[in-house]
């Protein structure tokens, strides 16, 4: 290992056939960087957490604004972290509205949450949304880490079929979009997530040779596929474009992996064996993996779908029978509203679990949570009305000292949530003039 004379942020531990970069440790910095400077600060991480079907609005928002608010019923699990997050009101997801396209609010809510673009109403392969905020960040800064971004979920991705009033299933099961026609699937299996994050890539000449051979094969595939472009129909060309985008990304990942140093997992970390049968355990295992990815700087961008939009997941562990989506159409019945609050509180409890883990990890002059920006929310406010104004949004973490936490802020009615994504990208180090239906960078954060 290098000494303080020339240690790199990518300093690593080696062994055991897997690889993880070391967490940020100020004591290992060169003496010239011993005082806090831009070069010495830990990197900022950016995460997006999505809950489907809206919330019970009567038990979500605090009743008073500012720092002295009282946590609402649903947000009670976050009490230990009230100085680590802020509640944001007044934000709107306009592109989840019909805007002339009729029914399909669940599909549009999922598709537009991070893209803030109107999804094309289709159940075929010609789906179209827009680049998502996370992927804009990944495209600009993703080459600084082992993987550009991590997409995690609980319910499996579906890229085909009609799932909501003529909208493709891809819209309900996808948060991240590389571009308007390239959704990035979520992964639900912790074994696969673990492998993607920490797969062994030793400096073995045979492994290097195989990787180079695979790169050559991919190049050949690209050449042959491109030669077909003029002979294909419009829809087939779109399918081919999506395929080529994925192949190109794979080629880039192989090339990037060849240049990165091998690393090992921290002591006590073991690979997951399977998807837990217990839903709570499944959530927490995948949240642990996301936290570990942030801690080891394998990636700085993550998305997590706590369930797909329109989900009928059942939450018997909190005493709720019936499907989530059906319950969200509560018809103002007290029994359904109470069930919905229990589901909402269960999801918030999982988010609190992640905050506790991140806050327990020292980093720089604070904690890993201090260097995160974690947006939590839904593209639907009241599920019964399919409302998309005043959507439930939390922003946790201090963004490396750039965010003011511990308060409830209410923005003017119809403020685009896209403005929040612009503000997060700006703090992440990515400046773009506009995004989706944004009207400017959200201030007073």
Describe the structure in your own words.
By secondary structure, the protein is an alpha/beta fold. The chain folds into two domains: 31-200 and 264-428, Alkaline Phosphatase, subunit A (3-Layer(aba) Sandwich), CATH 3.40.720; 202-259. The chain is built from ten helices and 13 strands. It has helices spanning 105-112, 133-141, 169-172, 190-198, 205-227, 234-259, 279-295, 324-328, 334-359, 418-428; strands spanning 45-50, 85-92, 150-153, 162-164, 167-168, 176-179, 182-184, 301-305, 362-363, 366-367, 372-377, 393-396, 407-416. The strands form four sheets. It has a seven-stranded mixed β-sheet with strand order 3-8-1-11-12-2-13, with helices on both faces. α5 runs antiparallel to α6 (234-259). The longest helix has 26 residues, at 234-259. The model is unreliable at 1-23 and 25-39 (pLDDT under 50).
């Amino acid at each position: 290992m290098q000494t303080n004379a020339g240690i790199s942020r990518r300093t690593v531990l080696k062994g055991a056939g897997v690889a993880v970069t070391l967490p940020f440790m100020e004591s290992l910095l060169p003496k010239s960087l011993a005082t806090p400077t831009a070069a010495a600060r830990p990197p900022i991480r950016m995460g997006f957490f999505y809950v489907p079907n809206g919330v019970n609005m009567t038990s979500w928002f605090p009743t008073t604004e500012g720092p002295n608010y009282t946590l609402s019923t649903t947000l009670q699990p976050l009490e230990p972290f009230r100085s680590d997050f802020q509640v944001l009101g007044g934000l709107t997801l306009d592109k989840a509205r019909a805007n002339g396209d009729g029914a399909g609010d669940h599909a549009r809510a999922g598709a537009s949450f991070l893209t803030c673009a109107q999804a094309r109403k289709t159940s075929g392969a010609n789906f179209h949304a827009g680049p998502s905020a996370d992927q804009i960040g990944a495209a600009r800064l993703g080459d600084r880490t082992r993987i550009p971004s991590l997409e995690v979920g609980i319910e499996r991705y579906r890229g085909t079929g009609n799932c909501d009033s003529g909208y493709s299933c891809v819209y309900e099961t996808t948060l991240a979009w590389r571009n308007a026609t390239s959704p990035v699937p979520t992964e639900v299996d912790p074994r696969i997530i673990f492998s993607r994050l920490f797969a062994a890539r030793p400096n073995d000449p045979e492994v290097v040779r195989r990787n180079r051979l695979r790169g050559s094969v991919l190049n050949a595939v690209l050449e042959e596929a491109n030669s077909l472009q003029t002979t294909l129909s419009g829809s087939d060309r779109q399918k081919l474009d999506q395929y080529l985008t994925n192949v190109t990304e794979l080629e880039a990942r192989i090339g990037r992996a060849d240049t990165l140093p091998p690393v090992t997992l921290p002591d006590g970390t073991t690979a997951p064996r399977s998807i837990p049968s217990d839903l709570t355990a499944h959530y927490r295992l995948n949240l642990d993996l996301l936290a570990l990815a942030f801690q080891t700087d394998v990636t700085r961008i993550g998305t997590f779908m706590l369930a797909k939009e329109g989900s009928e997941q059942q939450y018997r562990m909190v005493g709720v029978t019936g499907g989530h989506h059906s319950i969200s159409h509560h018809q103002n019945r007290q029994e359904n509203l109470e069930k919905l609050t229990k589901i909402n509180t269960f999801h918030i409890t999982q988010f609190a679990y992640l905050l506790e883990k991140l806050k327990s990890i020292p980093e720089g002059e604070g904690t890993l949570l201090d260097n995160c920006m974690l947006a939590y929310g839904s593209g639907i406010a009241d599920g019964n009305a399919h409302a998309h104004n005043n959507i439930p949004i939390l922003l946790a973490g201090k963004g490396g000292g750039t965010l003011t936490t511990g308060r409830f802020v209410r923005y003017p009615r119809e403020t685009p949530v896209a403005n929040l994504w612009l503000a997060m990208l700006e703090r992440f180090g990515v400046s773009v003039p506009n995004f989706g239906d944004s009207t400017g960078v959200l201030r007073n954060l």
